[in-house]
Design goal:
The complex is a heterodimer. By secondary structure, chain A is of the alpha+beta class. Chain A has a domain of 117 residues: Clam (outer membrane lipoprotein receptor (LolB), chain A), CATH 2.50.20. In chain A, strands 6-5-4-3-2-1-11-10-9-8-7 form an 11-stranded antiparallel β-sheet. In chain A, strand 3 and strand 4 form a beta hairpin. In chain A, helix 3 runs antiparallel to helix 4. The longest helix of chain A is centred in the N-terminal third of the chain and has 22 residues. Chain A is globular, with a radius of gyration of 21 Å. Chain B is of the alpha+beta class. Among the domains of chain B are: 135 residues, no CATH class; 222 residues, Up-down Bundle (Multidrug efflux transporter AcrB transmembrane fold). In chain B, the strands form 4 sheets. In chain B, strands 9, 10, 11, 12 and 13 form a 5-stranded antiparallel β-sheet that branches. In chain B, strands 3-6-2-7 form a 4-stranded antiparallel β-sheet, with helices on both faces. In chain B, strand 11 and strand 12 form a beta hairpin. In chain B, helix 6 crosses helix 21, helix 9 crosses helix 10 and helix 13 packs antiparallel against helix 29. Chain B is elongated, with a radius of gyration of 35 Å. The chains are: A alpha+beta, B alpha+beta. The interface between A and B is large, with 42 and 34 residues.
Amino acid sequence: MRIVGAVPVRVLLLLGCASVLAAEPDPLDTLLGQLAQRRHGVASFEQRQFLSVLKQPLDSSGLLLYEAPDHLEQRTIKPRPQSVVVDHGLITMQLGAHVRTLRLADYPQLAPLIESVRATLAGDRAALEGEFMLQFSGPPAQWHLQLVPRDPALAAQVQHVLISGENAAITGVEVLQSGGDRSVMHITPRE
Amino acid sequence: MRPPRLLLPVLWLLLMAAAVLVLVRARYSADLSAFLPRTPSHSQQLLVEQLRDGLASRLVLIGIEGGDARERAAASLALAHTLRASGVFLSVSDGAAQDAERDRDFLFAHRYVLSNAVDAARFSTDGLRAAIVADIGLLSSPAGALAQSLLRSDPTGETLQVLDTLSGEGAPHHEQGVWSSPDGRRALLIAATRASGSDTDAQARALGLIRTSFAASATATAAPLRLLLAGAPLFAVQARATIEREAVRLSLLSGTLIVTLLLLVYRSVGTLLLGMLPVMSGALSGVAVVALGFGVVHGVTLGFGVTLIGESVDYSVYLLLQSRPGISPPGRWGSRLVPPQLWPTMALGVLTSVCGFASLLPSAFPGLAQLGLYSISGLLAAALATRLVLPALLPAQLRVRDLAPFGAAAARALARLRVAPLALGCLALACTGVITAHRHRLWNLDLAALSPVSPQAQALDTQLRSELGAPDPGNLVAVLAPDPERLLERTEQVGRQLDTLVAAGVIAGFDSPARYLPSAATQAARRASLPDAPTLRARLVAATASLPVRPTALTEFVQAVDGARQAPPLERAALDGTSFALALDAMLWQEDGQWRALLPLRASASQAAAGAIDVGRVRTALAGYPPGTVEVLNVRQETDALYGGYLQEAIRLSLLGFAAIVLLLLLALRNLRRVARVIAPLLLAVLCVAAMLLAAGTTLGILHLIGLLLIVAVGSNYALFFDRSAADADRAQLPRTLASLLVANASTVIGFGVLAGSSVPVLHALGSTVAPGTALALLFAALLCPRALLQDAPGTRP
């Protein structure tokens, strides 16, 4: 009788473990799930870049627009008005009167960086994991997601991309290049 | 003394052996030159070469559907890898990044001679400053990484400039790193076969390789992946397969039916074989004479020739069914009693057909002219074989069924069926009315009407082509010059004029070989506009004085410009290993001591929807070159004009042929009434068939026309036999004559009726014209012969 009774207890214990696991999922999945629910967003940004080709840090500011899942637009207002649109694998740059469209696929050093932001916004973990090793830290109110390139060619140029946020909002993107060049962007959601 | 009985057959055998010898040694051609005029214009020549061997004729468009985007991309990469390794293809592109790497390296290494933006102003202090300011603006964008590398090595952005001019607007979408349709539902690839477009066997092997490679790689996905193929190679292979399959299937079917019919009548395999002697002789002689006359035999001649001399089956039917057992002892050969009117009537029938087909001889198109010569020589040979050889081989006692009672019954039936000539007149009027009502769309001038490729396959082709931005050979500018350098210079001049058309919105864009390989003169001019290293360094210091950029960060740029200044000229060999080599070879080549370039023009999406580019404006813009050096081709217009010319000429010549037939009959019969009696049923049959086809919504093409010619050729025999019987008031022979005509017509209707069931447009057109036409010709000939002839046929009242 006791043996018979022991089996359900074990089963219950196992089920209990499973329900504990289900109750507390991977926090990154939770975050990406929340991000994925956002279909569009508008935010202002301020960026400071420390680049070896420049004599002094370069400041810029403007608006960021996002439409799920793969439309990303950066409208720079300062220092000069300029717009860059990333849509469905094409990057369109308006430089003065000249509009130039490039295929991201033609620029393997460029595509992953843009993809890191797009995939995070879209909550596309598979796309992120494909290009980067992920490290997630911090509480939901102030999280950090560090992305380290898997591709050696890219890793030779980019050390990491660090995305920070508060709950379901991204508040910062920092790119650290291998040569020590660095750019820091602060993002303030508008909607 | 009569010559020995077997002298003629032996002579005949020797002649046939000679014909076989000619046949074996003849040259055969399956290319499009049969449809090219004997003295083609430049543009026609170029067009046919392009259709036959051009890059467009080698491009296979590949789509992969099903599964998810990742699975499709994996299948696309695997397929491209296998196909590249096979060596069967000149190039295989799936849009994957690593493919583009060699291309990028080439563009980057040669950016200063390839970029059309390189000039002195661009490398002045002001020009450099403007470029660097733009790059700085880009630094803070998502494309910042690109801007950094630009600033270091290519601040004026020449690599981007070259990419811009090369990629155009039609670049395919990307999904999971490979090309995809804009809706993301299928992965796309383009493969160019190494074999030329006219090598259908090699194309078939290449397509087979694509299918097996795909099947081998696309395993184990949740939803199965499907392979879609399109492009000119697929069309060529499909068209040939369909025609071969149909030809074998239909000739087996009609052959079986006709042999069964003739066996029922002849009741002996030996007699049946003897009956085939004239056709065989005709076919052999026809090919031999064409080979001797033209030097080369076209595929179309072999394909349709035998159909055209199908009339020669009738000759032996007439002989065997109209002759009677002779008085010689049984077992002796060559002594059948032949009715005296048979040979003159048949001779006139043969001459009538010869007149009809002779009209094709002067055609400017070798295909038509060969068909004319083939038919004439084939019919004459068949008639001579029937007259001179066959009687000598026939035993006196044949087991041929006596069809006199059947003929008599048919005569009785026809006598009851008699229709007032007035009714036939009304029918003729009605048919003329139908034809007149359709006069504006009587003839189908569209070459696509001849294509056996299904509309679904053509629709898929159009769709994949637009999704891929693949070169559609719609409009081309052809440039000619005696050597490559002058060709490239002229091409660049044309390119500058086309640029103004792009700016004016007349065309959306164009491709040019000079973009991949500029002329030596242009390269030298671009090099000359680059400053030397000390000058450039000084200008950079001045340009960046007020900018946040460190001049020292631009060292790599100074070295690159200096290197480009001193580099040897860029030559064709430098393109090897890049995808540009294929593009260049497709657009620039040498032929007959002349160098040729082809610049495909691109229509914008709205133009493509509205019916393409205004070619007239392009022609006006490019006028003023020496004649024969620059030409604008609209492929569709040219092919349609070519075919239209073909058809117009055939119509004109057929009318001449008809006039010749009337003249011949006037000379032979010397009686207007009798000529009318022969011509009227033929004319009526032709009118009826044309009206029937038009009323059914068909527009007439070249094969319909040849079909109408055949109705006259075959039908004239029927009408002449009726006329001869009427003229001789020969009632005794009439049942046998009528029976032979019915059997002959039955075999014609079976043969062509089976063709009418074909899905191949050319076969269907021929069959649906000739089968009803000959039957009607026989009916009308019977209805128009004197009433007394049929009523009093022996056997009517035993």
